[in-house]
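Re-running the complex after MR caught last week's input typo. The corrected sequence lines follow. Everything else is unchanged.
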Amino acid sequence: MGSFHATRLSFMRVLIRRLHAERVRVQKRLWEIDRDGFGRAVYSFVISGRHYSLCAFTAPLEPEARTDRVIATAWDATFALFDGIPDGPDLERIRANVERQEAGRYRPTELVISRANKSVRLFEHTVDRLADGKQPDADLLMRTGYLMRTTAVYGNGKFGIADRCRISGRSAFTAPFQAELLTVWLIRGFTHDLVEHVASSRNPGTSARLDQVTKRHLGIGNATGLGMAPFLVSHPILLNNWMLARETAFARVRGLTRLTEAQVGRAVELFGRARRHLSEWNVEDARQMTRIKTLRSELESASAPFSEEFLAGAFPWERITCAASCMSLEAQELAVSLAIEPHGDLVDDLADGMSSGALPEIDPGMPVRELRGLVRRNYSWATGADYGNPESRWYFWYVSKEKMEPRLGDRHRDPGAQFELPLDVALKVKELSRDLDADKADGSAAEFLARHPARRYAVRRVQTSANAPYSEIRENLIGAECLPIDMLRCKLSFFGASKFDPKSDLWTRITMFQGAPSFETVANSDADDWCFPVQGA
Amino acid sequence: MTRELSLNEIELTVRKAAVACGWPYGLAEEFGRAALWAAELKLAAICEIIELARPGPTTAEPQKEGGRLVFPEGVAALVSALDYLAGKQADEVAIRATDSLPGMAAFAGTAAKSYGLEFEVAKSGVTLIIAAPAHCWLPERDIAPAGPVTLRSRAAPLLQASNALAGELLLDNGCWAEAVALARKTLVPETDASRERGAGAGLLDND
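Corrected-run output:
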């Protein structure tokens, strides 16, 4: 999971394909931004027959107040995705609350709220260069890749925002996180407009606009922390559906007996692009940089499998998979992304199955012997551990009081373990297994739960695994060896993020929508061709 | 006074309130789901659900009396009773006592939604039918303060689509404040050490 790369089934790709298919036109409905870039703006557009608007608000921010952490109380920019077109009172109400983010209250007309901070490196530099009639420095652009970073994107009922069930029936939002990612794409477009505006204000006569190549390479940065990790555990059916789609796509392409000439050419092109993408992916984290360097050298040696001759042979993707199996995990997972990419006609339909409104349920009539069997077959990774060893129960997950932020506590010295979040799935299943073994009675799950009501959570998860083989992260998530960063990367790869830049074991910077089409180019024929983004493309 | 809340907020807050009251997580989830079901139908049952979350009996095993399974009082027993009916361990069960019919109806509604069943709840000569998500009828006032309840299940007919999301969802402020206060007990106060070990701590965020 910690080595996944984005694929064409990633949710950003799904979004852009829809925006392209509908030829969505984003219009600037309101632009009250002063010469220094502060004020408000509204962008409106129609998707699948309904109007939506991004409301954007910017304000001066002292450098010492600029932080990406959830504990921040002020930001360079704040946003809301509005269901419809906001009127004056709507905008005032939204502004009064969205500038407070979690401390505000929202209405069901707000579908998403977010905030972003400027890239200190790149934002001012870009304004200066554009004001001089020039494009930003290519090297700085490559090293940063975004003008602003979002630090949280909230949806689904948080703080009074519209519940997901209110919009999940709309075709535009059926796939996972479409409203949230649409908001991020719109914010990206706003950042392009903002730098151009400030540059033009400084030098009206000769300032330049961002060229389209530069615009495409400017994504949106993001700082992703632990808050994202519990989601994968608390949504097992959703996680299963994501993994199942990915694995099914991979299985389909592996089963291809031969590629067409066009597909061979495309695969060779993608391989070259992936290598250039990797050359532009540089991070400070020593462990991740070692993995990237290993990946680069492995791709160097993999030129033969990605030659036209090799790809023109029988079962090319199966043979490439076998070749990659002795390489690093990063290389193996990159091979998955590369294999799937040229075959949209074969796999894009799988995106329809990646959402789920279903919840894990108890099957009360299941015989206890069947429940025991599920534990044995699907949870040996959990029941085999020694939870008497302090290292197996090192951490506990909890939510902080001050900022409602998930954190990882040390069980042996931090208070609060009595309120730990239920990410200790492995331990809970072990305890269930112990009670199943001790409870000699047969009968049904309902009867077992009447005798052991505290095992309800574990029984529900075990029973869910019967029809959802990818529903569990097969790892002790409270053990000393647990690396939350791996969970973050997995989820972010499904979002479609790239350029993973870990800052610790607990959070990472990423870039979203780098290489994606802009407002002006989303209707272009190459709108879906932006995997492995490279500068200058 | 009332306030507007999202369904997500209601479910999560009630679930956390149940955790704060000492319920195991699997049963706390049932509290949250019951509140969600009541909220979807805009039923005035959420306060009763929160009241039921207060620490109480946790035994759930039934006893056989006169050929019928009789469950003790309390939410754990109620959830088990619904499991028994849904798992076809019985066609009819009794629950020794229940203080809150609306609260009980919400748990039955959740089970109806999960299992695709209808539940018949009979108390003091009045029978309620609980099905999800289409309909639930509750009397304007509770029939009797506490008393035994008979619970039966049957297959649900085809359900009509619900418009439960139409309009605003409002909730009594006093009741909600109590739920929030309970839920906040599950939050862990930060310390200097925990702030330092939080994500992003100690690093320069500006780039």
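None of the earlier attempt is carried over here. The CA atoms of residues 383 and 430 of chain A lie 5 Å apart. Chain A is about 40% helix and 15% strand.
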